[in-house]
Backbone:
């Protein structure tokens, strides 16, 4: 589990910012204050490790996240024109520095690598180019277990596809690859078989208080999905059931497929869901996280997701304890300063350690205006 992430010079973080992490992390705050920056730091490493098995050249454009060029991700106020990450897990700390890669603007070149304070990156300069010494090659990143674990990461984007009745059949598709937008969820459901579909249907029914689900091959070239909003065995095309079912489905499938000890990142799980369903979905994700030792990062604007955590804590869901979870609250009122990050803890009674301005207070503000 990643215990701490440090960021400097990347996107909205000009100055070095160290952020402690728990097993369950809710990223909460105003738009454009740094929530996505945290998630994207994980995703850039994950997509680069999946594609290349090392991070000598960080892929800024890929299947999971497409951020553009190096100049677009390095903080505009950073004089060095480099950005820096550090990740601390239970046993090790890795520190990574990246700079611009000439002629490859959609990549970033690794220029610093420390593991537990030891320099693992040694560059010898010649007259026309830099050569990495054989003894401390950047290829050693493939041997760092923490980086290897990023390859197991599951991710569900906020930009999920709506109702989709039929999907092209892709036999070569990884059975765990949903696609960033959930575009392959029908394929995955079909390939995983009836027992997995039954489990997904059970969870879907709990969250949305009723559901029927079936995914099966239509012919040699396509796979189709049927849903219903009640448990009566009837099946309809997703377009006739409602957006909420299609939007929550990739979230449920990703959580059930996440491997023990891996990382699961979900953006805006609350999309198109009734407030009660938002809270129940949060409790499901928390339950899976604790049961399977999955580190969970949820980017959300939903008070109901936050309250889902509070209820789970009070109910001691799967022996959930205050040390297992935190809310990372992002605020930023001055464009010339770093984003402000505050850690809010939840005690065993569901009470929060702090209520800063703009945190869970919009309803109160609106009531005051109405009165």
Residues:
């Amino acid at each position: 589990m990643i215990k701490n992430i440090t960021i400097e010079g990347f996107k909205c973080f000009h100055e070095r910012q160290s952020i402690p992490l728990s097993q369950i992390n809710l990223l909460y705050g105003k738009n454009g204050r740094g929530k996505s920056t945290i998630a994207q730091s994980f995703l850039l490493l994950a997509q680069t490790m999946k594609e290349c098995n090392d991070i000598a050249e960080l892929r800024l454009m890929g299947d999971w996240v497409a951020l553009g060029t190096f100049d677009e991700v390095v903080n505009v106020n950073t004089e060095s024109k480099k950005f820096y990450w550090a990740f601390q897990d239970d046993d090790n700390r890795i520190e990574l520095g990246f700079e611009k890669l000439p002629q490859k603007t959609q990549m970033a070149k690794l220029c610093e690598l420390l593991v537990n304070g030891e320099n693992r990156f040694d560059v010898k300069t010649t007259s026309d180019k830099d050569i990495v010494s054989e003894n401390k090659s950047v290829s050693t990143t493939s041997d760092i277990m923490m980086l290897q674990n990023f390859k197991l990461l599951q991710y569900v984007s906020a930009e999920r596809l709506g109702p989709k009745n039929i999907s092209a059949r892709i036999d070569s598709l990884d059975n765990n690859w949903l696609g960033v937008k959930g575009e392959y969820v029908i394929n995955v459901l079909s390939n995983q078989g009836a027992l997995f579909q039954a489990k997904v249907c059970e969870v879907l029914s709990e969250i949305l208080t009723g559901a029927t689900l079936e995914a099966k091959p239509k012919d040699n070239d396509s796979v189709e999905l049927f849903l219903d909003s009640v448990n009566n065995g009837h099946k309809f095309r997703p377009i006739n059931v409602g957006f909420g079912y299609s939007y929550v489905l990739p979230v449920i499938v990703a959580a059930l497929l996440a491997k023990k000890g891996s990382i699961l990142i979900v953006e805006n799980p609350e999309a198109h869901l009734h407030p009660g369903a938002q809270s129940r979905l949060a409790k499901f994700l928390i339950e899976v996280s604790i049961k399977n030792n999955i580190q969970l990062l949820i980017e959300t604007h939903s008070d109901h997701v936050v309250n889902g955590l509070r209820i789970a804590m009070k109910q001691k869901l799967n022996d959930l304890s205050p040390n297992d979870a935190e809310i990372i609250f992002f605020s930023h009122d001055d464009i010339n300063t770093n984003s402000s990050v505050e850690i809010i803890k939840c005690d065993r009674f569901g009470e929060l350690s702090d209520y800063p301005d703009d945190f869970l207070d919009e309803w109160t503000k609106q009531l005051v205006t109405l009165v």
Summary: The domain at 4-152 is CATH 3.40.50 (Rossmann fold). The chain has nine helices and 18 strands. Confidence is low (pLDDT under 50) at residues 123-139.
